[in-house]
Amino acid sequence: MGRLDGKVILVSAAAQGIGQATAIAFAKEGAKVIATDINESKLRDLENYSGIQIRVLDVTKKEQIENLAKDIERIDVLCNIAGFVHHGTILECKESDWDFTMSLNVHSMYLMIKTFLPKMLAQKSGNIINMSSVASSIKGVVNRFVYSTSKAAVIGLTKSIAADFIEQSIRCNCVCPGTVDTPSLRERICARPNPDQALKDFLDRQKTGRMATAEEVANLFVYLASDESAYMTGNELIIDGGWSL
Ligand SMILES: NC(=O)c1ccc[n+]([C@@H]2O[C@H](COP(=O)([O-])OP(=O)(O)OC[C@H]3O[C@@H](n4cnc5c(N)ncnc54)[C@H](O)[C@@H]3O)[C@@H](O)[C@H]2O)c1
C-alpha cells in the first residue's frame, strides 16, 4: 500500500530538479500525478512512469491554468514548485528582473490557488504545498535580493491561506530548502566567472559539506502530501542541512 494511494496531485515545474523528483516520488507512493511544466520535451521523460500524466502549463498564464482546471475533476494536493533565482543585490535588480521573479515565484501561486481552491472547498478537503526557500524571511542571503523577497512572500501567502481556510479542511504549508543540487543550480554555477570557485563557495556554506539532493526534498513533499501530516498547516518546513542555524 502506498502512502498516497488514491490522491490526485497536481505538480508545477515537474520537468526537472525538485519538481521532477517530487512527481516521481508521489507516483511511487500510489498517487495519480498531473505533472506540469513549460518544457514539454523534458516533461516527456516522465511519461513512462505509471501514475503520471503530463501536461504543458505555464504557471504565469491565467488562461492556461483555467483551461487545465476545466479538465480536472478532483484535486487533493496542489504543489506549487515553479520558481526562478535571480542573482544580485537591489542594485543589480532591474525592474524587469523584479517583475519576472515576482510573477513566476509569487503571482503564479496566487493564480494557481485562486483557480484550484474552489474545487477543494467543494470537495470539503484540500492540501496546498508551496515552494519557498531558506533565502526568505528565514535567512538573509547575499546576492539574492528579489529571490529572497519573493520567497518571503510565499511564506506570508502560505500562512494567510492556512489561516483563512483551516475550518474548511484546507491545509497549506511551504517547503524551505537550503541549497539543492539541481540542473538549474549547476547552470547558475557554470554561469559564474569562475565556476570552480562558485561550486566551492556553495559547498563551503554547507555545514554538512554537501548540498541536498532533489530526492531528499521530494521525501518531505511526500510527507506533507500524505495524511501522516494531517495536523500540520501554516508551517514553513526548513530542509537545509543546518545552513540557517
Ligand atoms: N535548487 C535549489 O537550491 C533550491 C533551493 C531552494 C528553493 N528552490 C526552489 O525550488 C523550486 C525548483 O527549483 P529547482 O532548482 O528544482 O528547479 P529548476 O530550476 O532545476 O527547474 C525549474 C523548472 O521550472 C520550469 N519552469 C520555469 N518557468 C516556468 C513556468 N513559467 N511555468 C511552469 N514551469 C516553469 C522549468 O522548465 C524547469 O523544469 C524553485 O521554486 C526554486 O526557487 C530551489
CATH class: Alpha Beta
Helix content: 40-55%
Shape: globular
Give the ordered list of helices and strands: EHEHEHEHEHEEHHEHE
Low-pLDDT runs of 5+ residues are none
Return the structural class.
alpha/beta
Bound molecules: nicotinamide-adenine-dinucleotide
Q: What is the rounded Rg?
A: 17 Å
Give, in spatial order, the strands making up the sheet with the most strands.
3-2-1-4-5-6-9
Largest sheet: 7 strands, parallel
C-alpha end-to-end distance: 37 Å
Number of strands: 9
CATH topology (fold) name: Rossmann fold
- Tally the helices: 8
Task: Identify the CATH architecture.
Answer: 3-Layer(aba) Sandwich
Subunit structure: Homotetramer.
Pathway: Amino-acid metabolism; Siderophore biosynthesis
Main location: cytoplasm
Family: Belongs to the short-chain dehydrogenases/reductases (SDR) family.
List the defining traits of the structure above:
seven-stranded parallel β-sheet; binds nicotinamide-adenine-dinucleotide; alpha/beta; 8 helices; NAD(P)-bd_dom_sf; globular; two-stranded parallel sheet; cytoplasm; Rossmann fold; about 240 residues; 4-oxoproline reductase activity; oxidoreductase
SSE layout:
Layout: E1 8-11, H1 17-28, E2 32-37, H2 40-43, E3 52-56, H3 62-71, E4 77-80, H4 95-123, E5 126-131, H5 145-165, E6 170-177, E7 180-181, H6 183-190, H7 195-204, E8 212-213, H8 214-225, E9 236-239
Bound molecules: nicotinamide-adenine-dinucleotide (NAD).
EC number: 1.1.1.104, 1.1.1.30
InterPro entries: NAD(P)-bd_dom_sf, Sc_DH/Rdtase_CS, SDR_DHRS6-like, SDR_fam
Main location: cytoplasm
